[in-house]
Amino acid sequence: MSSERKALLEKAYPEVRSFCCGLGLVFEVVDLRWGIRNVPSGDHEACEVFLEEIQRCEQMSAGPTFVALLGNRYGHRALPRLIPEKLFDALLSKLSKNPEGIKTLNQWFKKDSNAVPPTYVLQTPARSQPRRNNGSTHQVKARGHHAQLANQVALCCLCFLSVFWFFLPTVTEREFERGLWQNDYESSALLFVREIPRQKSREGPKRFAKFMDVTGDGLLDAEAQGLLAGLKTRLFVKSQKILNLHSVELSRGSINPKCKEHAQYLDSVCEQFVSQMKARIGAAIDSLGRRKMWGTTEEEEKMDGLVVMEARRHIAISAELCRGFHGREGLLGKLCLAMWESSNVRHRPLVVHGGAGMGKTAVLCKLAQEMRGVLEARAVVVIRLLAACHPQKPDIDHVLHSICTQVCLASGLAPPSPLTVSTHLELLRFFWDVLEQISQQGGALVIVLDSVEQLADQHHAHKLRWLPVDLPPNVHVVVSMETNSEAFANMRFKLESLGSFFEAERLSCEEGERIIESDLRVSQRTLTCEQSSAVLQTVESSGCPLHLKLILSVAKRWTSFTPLTELRLGTSTQEMMSHLFLMLEEKHGKELVEYGHTFLTNAELCDVMSLDDDVISEVYRYSLPPIPSLIRLPPLLWVRLRRDLQDHLEERWTDGVATIAFNNKRLSEAVSAHYLRSERRGRSLRILAEYFLGRWSGKLRPASLPGLSLLLSDRKVPPQPLWFAPGLANIRKLQELPYHLLHSGLWEELRQEVISKTQHRGKGACGPCSLPLFSCSKYMDCTETGLIRDALVLMKPSLCFLEGHMEVSLFYSELLARLSSLNSAFPTVIGRLCSQCEEWLLKYPDPILIPRSSFLQQPGGALQHTLSVLRGGQMIVVLRLLVAGSDDGVVEVWSMLDKQLVHTLLGHTASILAVKVIGSPAHCLSLAADGSLRRWSLMNGQQLFCIEEAVPIDSTPSSVHLHLSEQLLFVYTRTQVPPPRQASFTHCRMSLVTSDPVSALASGEGVAAGWGGAPPEQQSMLVPPAGSVCERLPVSSEVSCLELAQNKRLLLCGLTSGTVLIYPLALPQETLCIPPPESLCRVLCLTAGTKEKHLAVAYEDSVCLFEITSRDNFPTVEGPLEKFALPLLHAPLSAMALLPDRRLLYGTSCGEVKLWDFSRGGDVSDLEPHRSGVTCVTVSNRGAHALVGSEDTVQRLWALNPLGFLFEGVLSAAFSETDRFVFTGSQDRTIKVWDVASGNLLFVQYVYSPVVRMVTFRDGFVAITRQGAIIRELFRCPDHIGPDYNPVRSFRAQYRVTSREKDREGPQTSVSNLQDFNPTQLNLNLVGMFKAKPSSACVML
């Protein structure tokens, strides 16, 4: 059936693989007969391997597991490798009258007393080597001997039906029995049977061997054909529902794909295979209840579900290690006693340490198991085996978050959320708080962390600052680490007492005997006395459990007749590893064993080894490939190697994919050190990089085989697209490709394929895909790579807030808003990245804001690090330590070297008034508003003493002072005296920034500034670039307000002296001036009408209307044309807007909103007031709508006739040029876009700072934030918006809808969730969320 196998490999498998990838499934084909000539002929272990692989597929597969191809050959009937003792004795009894048969049987089989029960083992002249493809001459001879012996034994045993079926069935029939008839074959199996209608007369016996069974004389094997007919009859009767029967006439004893009839037959087989596989897979997925198994960008499981899965995985590994655990009773007793004695008092964590391979993991697993049985039902036991992820090192944030979630779910506490643990520091505080809450509730908690030295370097986890040293009652933390690790040195520094340290010592002889006996009992094996003594004598010298485990993995294969001289026992762990590697190389070849270290799936391993020319040359050293144009590694070779390594390998499930990895860190490191030398490591990494790039998919790769010239062959490796389907990413490529490109030195491919591609950055921006960027900065001298890495770090708050599931559009827009200014300076990588972002956003089908400038914090610059300290309080920096006290009474100690939190000092109950560091710097003092003065040790974070009532309670920081002398401590208190009012500025300057075309903005605070739009077409050296300061203008007094007449290019400036300055932007030195009024009142606000024909100036006591005209092409101001006085008790005007019909809409600092009509002699209309001061009044370009916003986070959009609807949170607003949209900047640090006609919310963008001023610019707007950033964006909105579009899908909030129509008496209010989104009149409640979570920061420059 080789032709059918080749057709399936070329046509059917790729189509089914693509179908599975689109569903998030991994399609893996294990054809153990492909690429091997006559596998069962001389290999008596093949049947065991085949049946074990069928069982493995049944355990792993979510869909079909067995595909059977049956032609006209029954197959070789080889002797079994193992015969049970009772059956062998029965054979001898039946051969009692045949001395020659008894002699032959005893010659070929020897009794193995090490098996339980004893078994007779077949002795072969020479064990076939799979890597030689069974091409040696002695194997052909062995086949004849085996056939003769099989016939003799079978003839003697025909009277026993069970014995008959034990010897006669081929491997094929046993596979059918296991894969078809022992399970629900209708849903898990496919069956293809080929029949020959007739035999041509010219087809002689020589051609029988190609497709039928023949005897040693070359004649047709009638017995085998009879057995085959019986098997087919059985299949026709039992497996009719899954049977695909084909009748094909062979051509010269084979299938010729060039023949039309045969080509149609092969196409039919492939079509049936594809259609039936798709149907079975679809049914299996429907039964599982989900269609995406891995790689999906949609959140299909909640975080608690993922944590439960992770906890179960660690518990399962722990239970597996406990099964073979023996000894260590003394160490376990000491740990349990220490935990019992410290249960009711505050205590220290416990540390188990020892050398590598000393069994620390097993001890902690057994301890966790014992604690579950000893503690009460309310107790929570959490175990994390950190070395189980080797070589990937777990991040401390992930570990702590997982532990907190598990503990909270088990204890009924609120689990961590993005709003509470968005930073590492907040996660630490949450973890420590959970420990305290569990203790206060009276519950018991045991946290077991194994191999803490395996933590990743993020946040300097090895310094163990995250580990609390003062645990509350009933809360226990047990950790393990290697004695020679950095983590152990730091732990000894943190814990002064040796009572918390427990060493895992060497195994005793008695413990070794019990471990050997238990392990062999599970494997149904034993050892002779001589073998057992040799093992114990060898292990006694090292006393290492890992050493004993390696020996036992080899000893399980010893027979009772294995000579002691052939036992390879290394005197140390390292020597035993070398012996293990040598034995594997002798059986499988060095090239195959080298790939045992890779952490790939089974399918990936076969693909990668198929691309390695050294492996292919080793495999086909003694025979040519069956199909020279299609060369791959025979899967049987890898399955054999994996079978021999089964005691040392494990399958790790990540994102629904099972990868193969060593279960011991030290063994994995030994394999890498033994095989991956510099040259070999680079070649392996390069092959892996090319594989995940998809470089050889569908292409011919050169191959150099012994005895052949250069050969071009297809290796049949699958393609590697980045996206299998919309929203379904190739997770394996995202995980593996950056690492292999980086470590293989393929810098250019790394820059072009990973760093400069938005697709790689858009999937988990600050998650696994950004980790290679941090590694790149260590090895690559690339400024652009570092800048992109820093940009992703700056984006991490957004990702954390959205729980790691940021919309791709938000990611691209934020990345563009941070990097666009670097586009021209770094065109190779950053320029390409920005172009891809902009191109993607322009094609986005929903409404979107596209950044045209860098308005978010850019990477690079003087800012090196930001410390997220607690809010308020006092701060001091002494000798690389920063001590900060907060308003919450917490004192934090930071290291300025690694920017990490060292200690959190808890004890005060009110805000910190003062902190001092003393003792160079060993101690610190903290004085709080609760009246207490405390002294702390900065070495271990412990309180040394406390003085109560050192100062009056509720003192303020300005009323106390700490002073230190050599031996005395002085605490001064004083009465606070309000300082005198400072005089106003006598001289201020204005900064003006312009470019052409101009979009100038203005900000108060005593400085006016304008920011440019697009750069001019012809720019000279004298013209500054857009966005930079080009001129500074002096003013006579403090600037109180600014306004911009954009069409007439005028900058209007109101001063506290009452003067109004008008600057033509074309000639800023030609200043116009409106003198102050007689009362010399200050200017409160300015506004120019939408037509810019009039100017309204609001003073403290009046409002004046001026006309803006021009003379000789130069602007002039005439008036005042109109004026109205404000009442004495009238609140000051805070914002106003002038309508085209000379009506003035203004708001006051008390929330009043009025409409004054100059044309009607002062007609006044009162609009609905706000509860606090009005901050923004904006009118649309055509005067049909006006938006009023206030400090009470309420914004109202008025359709001036009739009234409109209600928005919230606005600080600034601007209408688009067509008046179709209105842009608003809100206190919740967002920019919102609204449809004026319908009131629909179209888009929400988070910009990290409130927008205080906006002006229309082309198809978008230009705005300024409270932090001074300039925002210039283009708004793109399609003509049709889909009904499923939700503009607030990336925000975690509720909203309130409040509307008022003209024909209704009052407002109507309703509350809804985002799932029932009604885009009309939206109120995002984000302000309260951010107020509840302050974010104070200490910035280092």
UniProtKB/TrEMBL annotation:
The keyword Repeat applies. It holds the Pfam family NACHT. The keyword Repeat applies. Residues 348-487 form the NACHT domain. Transmembrane segments: none annotated. Keywords: Repeat, WD repeat. Gene3D superfamilies: P-loop containing nucleotide triphosphate hydrolases (3.40.50.300), YVTN repeat-like/Quinoprotein amine dehydrogenase (2.130.10.10). It comes from the Eukaryota. WD repeats lie at residues 880-904, 1167-1201, 1210-1244. PANTHER family: NACHT DOMAIN- AND WD REPEAT-CONTAINING PROTEIN 1 (PTHR45013:SF1). This is NACHT and WD repeat domain containing 1.
